[in-house]
Design goal:
The protein is mostly helical. The protein has three helices and four strands. The structure holds zinc ion. Zinc ion binds next to loops.
Length: 112
């Protein structure tokens, strides 16, 4: 499914479960969706950085063939928020390391 449709599909599933099986159905659907989301975090812990469209480049507006490195991701890739919190240990460690390194580079203006 597409990311833009996901909230609507989730809301539809939860509403349908509530209508069909009452509060118990709603709780079961929520637990099931949560489990699917957790499995997804483990299987696919990364996303493309949307601001740079996964390119890892911030293009110049005058000399458009030039770019600097995107300071907010690593080469266009990011670790999903949930995976950084509850993902596999090596993903969590990589997330913390990357965030710290990018923050330091921005502060010291060495991210370019
Ligand atoms: Zn980026």
């Amino acid at each position: 499914m597409r990311r833009s449709r996901f909230p609507w599909i989730l809301a539809g599933i939860l509403l349908f479960s509530l209508a069909a099986w009452g509060v118990t159905g709603l709780v079961l659907a929520a637990v099931g969706s949560g489990a699917a989301w957790y499995a997804s975090l483990r299987l696919h812990p990364r996303i493309r950085h949307r601001a740079c469209r996964g390119t890892g480049e911030v293009r110049g507006s005058v000399f458009t063939w030039t770019f600097r490195k995107c300071p907010r991701c690593s080469g266009g890739r990011l670790i999903r928020w949930g995976a950084g919190q509850w993902g596999a240990p090596h993903i969590r460690a990589e997330n913390a390391r990357g965030r710290r390194a990018r923050a330091k580079a921005r502060q010291e203006r060495t991210s370019r």
